[in-house]
């Protein structure tokens, strides 16, 4: 598969990029985060931004429905 050869190419110069899900989180490796990568500040920030965007969109749709 094409994805497999790309993963081999990416993991060759950086042995920290393993074939596990945790090994593909480059930002955590660069910052030294040793815990679960899905509970890192980077992922939690992305989750918070997603929730804020969702709530803002819902508020805009609700405002549009009540305004017309």
From TrEMBL:
Keywords from the named record: Membrane, Transmembrane, Transmembrane helix
Keyword match Membrane: yes
Regions that span the bilayer: 42-63
Name of protein: ABC-2 type transport system permease protein
Annotated source species: Kibdelosporangium philippinense
């Amino acid at each position: 598969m094409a994805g497999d050869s790309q993963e081999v190419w990416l993991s060759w110069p950086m042995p920290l990029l393993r074939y596990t899900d945790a090994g593909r989180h480059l930002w955590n490796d660069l910052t030294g985060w040793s815990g679960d990568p899905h509970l890192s500040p980077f992922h939690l920030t992305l989750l918070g931004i997603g929730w804020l965007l969702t709530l803002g969109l819902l508020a805009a749709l609700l405002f549009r429905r009540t305004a017309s």
